[in-house]
Amino acid sequence: MSRLESGIPGFDEIFSSVSDFDLTGFPGNTSTLIIGPPKVGKSIFCYQFAYHGLSIDEPCLYITADEGMKQLQQNMIDFNWFLQSAMDKEMLYVIDSISSLSGASIETTNTYNLSKINDPTDLMVKVGLGTRFVFKKSEEFRSVFDSLTTPFAFNPEPMVVRFLKTYIRRLKEAGATIIFTCTEGIVSENTEKILKSIANNVIMMDGDYITFRSIEGPIGTAKYHITDKGIIVDKGEVL
Amino acid sequence: MKTTHIPKLDDFLGGGIPEGSSILFSANPGVECEAFGYQTLQSRLEDGDQGFIFTNVAEPSDITYEFDKFGWDLEDSVDEGNAFFVDGSSYFIGAPVSGKYYVKDYSEVEEVVIKAIGDVPNGVGVINNLSTLIDYQGDEETVRIINKWNQVAKELGTILIYIFTQWDYEKGLIHKIEEAMDCVVNLSTIEERVIIGQGFMVTGASWTKPSSSMVLFNILRPGGVKIFIPKLLVTGPYNAGKSSFVKQIAPDSVSVDRMALGQVPTTIAMDIGHVEHKGFIADVFGTPGQERFDLILDVLSKEAVGAFILVDSTAPKTFARAKEMMKRCKAEAIPKVIVANKQDLPDALSTDEIRKVMNTDQSIPIVPVSLLNNEGIDEAMDALLEILYK
Amino acid sequence: MIVRIASGIPGFDDFTSSDDDLGLDLGGIPENTATLIYGPQGVGKSIFAYAFAYHGLTQDEPCLYLTTDLEMGDLYQKMASIGLKLDEYSENEMFYVVDAALSDSGSEMEDSDLYQSTSVKNPTDILVKVSRGARMISNKGPRFRSVIDSLTTVLESNNPVLIVRVLKTYILRVKEAGGTALITYTEGSSNSSTEILIKSMVDNIIKLDHGKITIEAMKGMGRKDIPYQITEKGIVLDNSE
Questions:
Q1: How far apart are CA A234 and CA B153, in angstroms?
Q2: Residue A131: which of B58, B135, B194 has the nearest Cβ?
Q3: pLDDT, tens digit, 9 for 90 and up, residues B238-249
């Protein structure tokens, strides 16, 4: 299995402790669910993961479903992460499925597309276009979906799950390393179970500890902090 | 018969859709399917019929805007009373409802749409989107409702068009939905790790035996559903006439420098153009013939759906290279036509002789062409299209 | 650096400022975010909202106020009773009220640029009116404040699923227009998943509970708490002189 750098200091080291392989890093071409209560840093993980990839020339397909493009950029600027150059280089393709609700009139570009929160069919079309665009840049790329919370708030649960399955299948075929987030406790227990089973890996964040259950079996956990440089993970242990 | 004005579709359906029929556009996730419903509605409105759109995925104002981007004035039709909305979306996202009818509770959907059907006898209704209906109503209730709608529509001569995204539903449900329809059109993706194209195919119609060809299409704004050939490759040995061929089929073609991917990146010149032939459109790429540029063939061929292999009919020594290039560009798997150029020269081999030397079977057409005399070019295009749309 | 705007709550801005030596980082509420003020009944959530709205007015930041429990007249009186006099700002067209607290008999006031009546039972209408208000008020200057007091009343009168969607849209629109939103909500007044959704949709979460104010989440800082009192001047944190 290929490995890539998550960009979260200390996090990749957990893998080397949970993995038999002599490789450190985030498992490539897998899907990972990041789940936890509100405000524990799930989105920050996404920003950091995407931004680090871009900084080492790994392109990214970013679907923003909670915050519009403007807020997304603003949130990242709070950590001194700037997206402009990646966008200029067309390394980043953003699908914004929420701004249509804000009533702002926004123009789409080569690398910025709009969709609607209650139209999974349209979102899947845009994902197809975005995937092809990013795939052409590199066959190894990252894909972030942040988050499922708003789609779940606006749609029946089975619809979001159906979309998600198709999304993950398509992106995995294209070679992407996928992370997607969801707030814990907003869907039925059964749906939450399905979400965890769809993903190869599950990262749980609770505000103090980040816990990782990998495709390879073992579970690693460590304390983490949110700083003005993003998330920093302490030395972890295998459970 | 009512025409859809979707290219090829009317032909496949024996001229169009009979009054009172139901038609399902059943799309793989990722295919742009709405346009099929919207374009049919627009065509019917232009022909003087009345129609409506039931929407549960977009606000009516969004759909009016979509029509606008296609170059169709839906607002005008609405103002004149020829078209209206059944708004099953706005209320559920907290937006003000609009349209002649609206839904604030999903239990109202069945009756409201029946009213709408009654308002447009011999007209057309578009249901966008059936998948969302399933998520709100459940499988069995949805099947019951669409059977009811189709029955009412049949009595009144109203055509019902369903937009359906085929997520991972139970096979039994999909079967029941298809059974409820007079006609099913599958919209599928053409994939090579990523979606590289989309096509439609009529899989059944109660009134005719439809052609089972797959038609590649693109959605253009403005324009709507257009048949297309995504990318055509023009390749062949050095000096076979590739550039002139590209110039002939795509008069506005240009020669551009492109970075060739590979271990040693190099810049190479390529001929790129846009071809329109009998309503079909395509992008054409003419590749360099020299062996050192073979890598670009690998890259381009991943995206191509058809290829012209040019050979110099007077130079049988280059035929082996042509075959090598066909292999190189994975042309074994994509439709291709061998263009036997320079037929104007006295020592040109005939197509039969070329086929013998090249040792290729009959499935690959060899078309005699003289670029110098402007002969055989349309025939070469026709030959490729015939394979593409067979 | 995260830009913060003064809260108007004595002690709060000091409490939320980071300890940088230069004193550059003034505390307060992060600008252009949404903040949830929640806790049990009677702990001063509305009073927090009054102070926040009023302080903005004194800083030339107009305010869009959705009131669901007090009709506009009562709101004016209530705020005046803790020394926050609105009349001047109303005259200067700084204070824009969407009044959803009216009884079914309707309003005695006519709708105007500064006053729109609506019904707590009609979330779509509320959204239309606050959106219009946000657009209008954003034309007056680069920043403004936007208050919902309280979300609980709207939730209780409608299907919570729909209200969560309306809230999301509201927050997006206020932030898009450059505003800073503050929303009050009574803990436990809706089911757990609705409450989690609400928390997920805001940027900052402040809990008031029996004499203790807890910053549960805020851009750029960790969780912390401090005792507070409700005085005749409103909410006062224990660190204030």
A1: 66
A2: B194
A3: 889 998 999 999
